[in-house]
TrEMBL record:
It comes from the Bacteria. Residues 10-110 form the SnoaL-like domain. It comes from Leeuwenhoekiella aequorea. SUPFAM superfamilies: NTF2-like. InterPro entries: NTF2-like_dom_sf (IPR032710), SnoaL-like (IPR037401). This is SnoaL-like protein. It holds the Pfam family SnoaL_2.
Length: 164
């Protein structure tokens, strides 16, 4: 098995095991990430995103992954996340294809591809069904995700300072 395939296996096994610290250790320092819900984010925001998603998913979050492929520079994997979203706890089953670029034995770039309309219909109900296909709704979802991530980061940093 190629070392970058092993790296992706570690990444997804850690995700499945709800271990964001081990998961994000697979990333390079200057990681960049993109997906339809968060847009483009970098560095600590990427690492915090996984911590937040795993924390919010709790015991209901299940991850399945397959078709991990990698060479010296690029890789990909298919994965499915099942969880409950928002205050109405709507069940979401999100089918994702992750693509990766590697450098020095770490993930340098990570992009997750999924159908935002399918996701929004499950997560947001009627509003997602009617508007989930639109650029307007995509922007709203990204703005809300960014806001939640910023609040989570602020909470993490406050917690770190109180632990000193």
């Amino acid at each position: 098995m190629h070392p970058n395939e092993e790296l992706l296996n570690t990444f997804y096994k850690s995700f499945k095991d709800h271990n964001p610290k081990e998961m994000t250790a697979c990333y390079g320092k200057n990681i960049t990430f993109a997906d339809p819900a968060f847009g483009h984010i970098k560095g600590d925001r990427v690492r915090a995103m996984w911590h937040m998603l795993i924390e919010r998913g709790g015991d209901d979050l299940t991850i399945k992954y397959e078709d991990i492929q990698a060479d010296d520079y690029t890789g990909s994997a298919k994965w499915v996340a099942t969880y409950y979203f928002g205050p109405n706890r709507r069940k979401v089953v999100n089918h994702v294809v992750g693509t990766f670029y590697f450098q020095n034995g770490k993930i340098l770039q990570h992009t997750d591809h999924f159908n935002l309309w399918k996701w929004s219909r499950q997560a947001l109900g009627v509003k997602g069904l009617l508007l989930g296909w639109s650029d307007y709704m995509k922007l709203k979802i990204q703005q809300e995700s960014s806001k939640k991530l910023s609040l989570y980061l602020q909470k993490m940093r406050t917690f770190e300072h109180t632990q000193l």
